[in-house]
Amino acid sequence: MGSILLKNVLLDGERRCVLLRDGRFALEGVTQESAADETIDAEGFAIVPAFYNAHTHAAMSLLRGYANDMPLQTWLQDYIWPYEDKLTAEDIRRGSGLAVREMVSTGSVFFNDMYFDIEETIDEVAEAGIRACIGITIMDNHPLALLEEKKRFLSEWKDPTGGRITLAVAPHAIYTVCEERLKMAAGLARENGLKLHIHLSETVTEVEDCLKAHGTTPVRYLDSIGFLGPDVIAAHCIHIDREEWDILAARGVTAVHCPCSNMKLGSGRFPYELAIASGVRIALGTDGCSSNDNLDMREECKFAALLAKLAGDPAIAPAGQVLEWATRGGAEAFGIDAGVIAEGKVADAVLLDLHARKMQPCFNVVSNWIYSADSSAVARVFCGGRTVYSRL
Amino acid sequence: MGSILLKNVLLDGERRCVLLRDGRFALEGVTQESAADETIDAEGFAIVPAFYNAHTHAAMSLLRGYANDMPLQTWLQDYIWPYEDKLTAEDIRRGSGLAVREMVSTGSVFFNDMYFDIEETIDEVAEAGIRACIGITIMDNHPLALLEEKKRFLSEWKDPTGGRITLAVAPHAIYTVCEERLKMAAGLARENGLKLHIHLSETVTEVEDCLKAHGTTPVRYLDSIGFLGPDVIAAHCIHIDREEWDILAARGVTAVHCPCSNMKLGSGRFPYELAIASGVRIALGTDGCSSNDNLDMREECKFAALLAKLAGDPAIAPAGQVLEWATRGGAEAFGIDAGVIAEGKVADAVLLDLHARKMQPCFNVVSNWIYSADSSAVARVFCGGRTVYSRL
Fold first, then answer.
1. Residue of A nearest to B305 (CA)
2. Which of A117, A284, B223, B254 is 20 to 30 Å from the Cα of B22, by its Cα?
3. Which residues contact A103 (CB under 8 A, 6 or more apart)?
4. Is B79 on the interface with A (CB under 8 A)?
5. Smallest Cβ distance to B105: which of A98, A357, A373?
6. What is the pLDDT of residue A73?
7. Residue B255: per-residue pLDDT
8. Distance from CA of A362 to the nearest CA of B (A)
9. pLDDT digits (tens, 9 = 90+) for B282-337
């Protein structure tokens, strides 16, 4: 793999020389004269960690703009589900490809997916040179034969990229997967050392139905059946009380906040204050394009920061903290030593053009990136030290 | 002025030929063979109305990223005001130029400004070929001599662009301008046929202080002194009750919603339900870059739509309605016959690249534009039939 030297790039307020070598960053002793296969004069550019999109349904980029601005049940039952029923493997390939191209061009190098026909998505990720965790979706309406097929796929699958792609077991949600299958999913994940990806406490209806069915709230219910652990990636986490946050934090669960989706579907405001106070690991995700409608983590960061502040405290969720959720939070959740530009860390990064209109003037790179910029500032994206997108 | 023919451009779901001639749109009888000074093959592009940014402080682009994520009073008193005290006319020129370039590149052709050293801003607008309403700011801390100077400027000023720029009288807010000066400002505006631009009911503190000082709420107070009328452009309008909305609607006031600023400063959620029910004219604005931190009306639209839905109704504020607030709402408020792509209307428009990643697939242009795209989809911007920005 070729090494890349970034000369005089702005990093944490200073001009530095940064070497990307063997998939990692080297800074110590690196100078303008350090040897590299490619040298980039990065005067006028800043380097920031690349985004980790911790919850999405990539191929739903196909449904962008298909149905919007309608009540949740109409949207799901009359539009989204019937449309999904007609999707072919070839469609999933196209949708995944479009999603991957959008993600790299907006600064993401990883996504945690939950959908179907996952071989198609895996191929697109492999080809694009980025990372993903691809969930094998489990639902009650899957016949036993399909379930067996999924288990077989999981046991036989080999990562074609040598480390960039992992599988996860993805029971959809507590209202679509019964207790028996939730336990089966957890067992399957733990036997194979995989993550468990689930939607959790997204709507008031989910909580109310759980109270009726199980006499307790979703987090307590999942905890009572032994589902929660450090391998659980829980998307949404909106309607969760203080004690439940403490449970999630104690079990090492990662909570994935998806502000655009939660706002657009009217699901509610993520309880930032409780989540932060609990010390739980927070990551950010875009959710799928039918409820967002893009996969742009920069925009997601701005929504997260501003939705947090909406309640009255402009000091909550500062730009740097939100960027951490969107980078290191996701990377740590998936056991990847990325999300920080520092010696020896995995070289996943975005080169930002400081001459982009929305990046000027530049008192604070991170603030400009999160609150002001858009994809026009993304000059180059690196994944594991390799260039996966470039406009230079 | 040269005419421009757009061949086969996507307009409201159909491929049309659109002529921009003498500053206006012609569609009737226009074909691919119609004569024009410039012909653009617009297959693969859609045309939408250009944005009207109805509340901003353009030159504050200079303060982008300067101070963020802190309590309101610290932010204002320790950072923003001291910084502003040091700004020179040359700074205002640079900040206005940066702002104008950002605005055109993100699809805006008009802004309603309130700041100082306005000659500098006027020059930048004139040069860029766009439109603006430039407010002459009135505050209690302006000495009488300065007030007289402003009046003289107003009476002697001639629009250098022949119709693209107007002045407004801009009393800052009820908490910075006394009753006598508010009345003076209203009189000055009405004598000269100008708009009145004011911040209104932005924070709970403003309402509480008004109750203490005047025994009533801001809208009722302004109405009691004869301030409200169809010439009033009121920015923010957050803490306003049902009866006050009826007053604003009855007086013909335009309410300018600035969602990013309101969220970022923790000011509160615009009461969409009440505002819409009252029938008041709604426009959108970005506010200044120190509280947003950009001037991108596309992003502002997404924030408006999603903040409206957050309260639980995904059907409120659909993409088309929000785009109307951001285009026709602003245009009508300032008496400009734009905001719709139709026969005889003022030719202010944006050409969108349908091949931009975030615009694909294209079930619905407006939905993709508002919910998904960013400035990378802006291919060309027209103001009064002239190209003011192009990446083609």
1. A264
2. B254
3. A51, A53, A58, A109, A111, A130, A295, A297
4. no
5. A357
6. 83
7. 98
8. 7
9. 999 999 999 999 999 999 999 999 999 999 999 999 999 999 999 999 999 999 99
